[in-house]
Amino acid sequence: MAHEKDSIPLEEFVAIVSGAAEAQLTKRQSTFLCVKAGEYHFRVTFRNKRAVHWPHKRFTGASFHTEHPLLLDYTDPQASLYFNAVSADIPSLVQELEQVTQEVFGGWRPLWQYLNHYGTDSQKGLPIGGMSSILEHLFRFPSGLFLRGPLSLAAPAQEILDRHGMQSALLDDYTPIVPVPLGVLLLGNNVLIAESFVVGPGGRGGG
Question: Residue 32's pLDDT is what?
Fold first, then answer.
């Protein structure tokens, strides 16, 4: 296990991994992961994990961020957006909402993740029918919850709904309390969000 006394600066770890032709996750556990980059072996221990997504064992590139669109779910005021009328132009509505989602999250999070998709099969991913199928299911009712998420998304989404005559209402849910700044460690497309990271030497066996 990596300790503070034999830790490696996170910036140095990122630089070494980024400079490697290819890196590899050799072990993934609930509190640490092991990375091989060229001749180097690292063990990254993290505390108070908020989110993790590591679909790729082999990857290229690494970076660390304390400000990132992925953090909006944990740091931005959260809000609920309601509608009281149905849009007559769903394709146009979808296009405008996806555009603003791209502007807010830079492609890191999809719109469907924040929509009210209760009763659909989209809890585990975007359904075959795409965004339109979620909205068509939602618009079976003349009013209700439209989306819930960061105010950075909910506020511009409200403007779009109002342009479509949907008589929206935006309600504040809560403002997250983040006593310790969060960090985002990106290893290729693998994502780890936690409060702290300690990097140390890792064994060649992946431990």
Answer: 96
Which residue stretches of the chain have pLDDT < 70?
1-5, 119-129, 203-207
Tell me phi and psi for residue 159, to 5 degrees: -60, -40
Q: How many helices (H) does the chain have, and how many strands (E)?
A: 5, 12
Q: What is the pLDDT of residues 120-155, one digit of tens each?
A: 655 556 666 677 778 888 888 899 999 999 999 999
Q: Please report, for the chain, the start and end positions of each structural domain, with discontinuous segments joined by +.
A: 4-70+178-201, 77-174
Query: ∠18-50-171 over CA atoms, to 5°?
Result: 120
Helix (H, G, I), strand (E, B) or coil at 152: helix
User: How many angstroms separate the CA atoms of 106 and 102, rounded?
Assistant: 5
Give the position of tokens 């003349």: 142
Give the CA angle between residues 93, 98, 99 to the nearest 5°. 100
Cα 161 to Cα 29, 129, 203: the distances in Å are 43, 21, 54
Percentage of the chain with pLDDT > 70? 90
Distance CA 155, CA 136 (A): 22
Question: Cα–Cα distance between 152 and 70 in angstroms, integer?
Answer: 12
At residue 1, the pLDDT reads 39
Q: Which fold has domain 77-174?
A: Alpha-Beta Plaits (3.30.70)
Q: What are 183's two structure tokens?
A: 């960090």
